[in-house]
Every structure is written in structure tokens, then in C-alpha cells.
Amino acid sequence: MLSCCEALRNRQHCQIWIRHQVIKQLSPNSLAQNHNYPRSAASFSVRMSDEHTYKFDVKMTCSGCSGAITRVLEKAKNDGTSGVSSYDVSLENQEVLVTGTILYDDLLEKIKKTGKEVRSGVTVS
């Protein structure tokens, strides 16, 4: 019989293996072969090099909350590799606007790492 820790480790390992298998099967080239999709990742309509504007509704109750998000976005902007060109954090409107080449999911992850609740997010342009 497995201990709780061993069972959890085995479950996590299985989930990771399954995700890896699904991703391998859904590579851009396999999609192109099976479903008449574009043959390379570069030919998809949304590319990493395209600049987008994202708008997030984030629960912020004080200047410390908005400051935490500002610090994360400023760090991403200054490192030059994250793809954040500009941002605006509005405590009054509970809103975060970010422009850059960063992917939506990567940006969402950065904001969530601050511990703030992201109520919604959309791609504006």
C-alpha cells in the first residue's frame, strides 16, 4: 500500500506524462498534417512578435496591492526579454492594462504570482 506522499507523487507524475503526450500529439506540424492547419508555428495568425494590449480586472484593495503588480510588471519591462512594453495599474478602477509581445497566459501567470485575484482578462487589441 502506498503512503499519501507516494500516491500523490505517482499521480502528479502520471498527469505530467499525460500532458506531455497530448502536447506531442498536438504539435503545429501534426495539426497541419491532420487538420489542414498552417504547417509552421510562424504562420499562425497570432505570433509572439505581434504586440497586443491586455486588460485585466484585478482585485486590489490598497496601494500595496497595486504596488505588488507594478513591481512585477516593471521588472518584466526592464528585463527586456519578457515582452512587456508598457503598463498601467489603476487601483481606483481595479484595472491593469499591459501592452507588449508577451503571451496572454504568461502575463496572467505573472499577475497571479502576486497573490492578487484576477477576476477577468481580455485581449483588447
TrEMBL record:
Gene3D superfamilies listed in its UniProt record: 3.30.70.100
Keyword Ion transport on entry: yes
Gene Ontology MF: a single term: metal ion binding
UniProt key word Nucleus: no
A single Gene Ontology CC term: cytosol
Record domain HMA: where: 51-119
Keyword entries, A-Z: Chaperone, Copper, Copper transport, Ion transport, Metal-binding, Transport
Gene Ontology biological process terms from the UniProt entry: copper ion transport
Signal peptide: none
Superkingdom classification of source: Eukaryota
Protein family per UniProt: Belongs to the ATX1 family.
UniProt-recorded name of the protein: HMA domain-containing protein
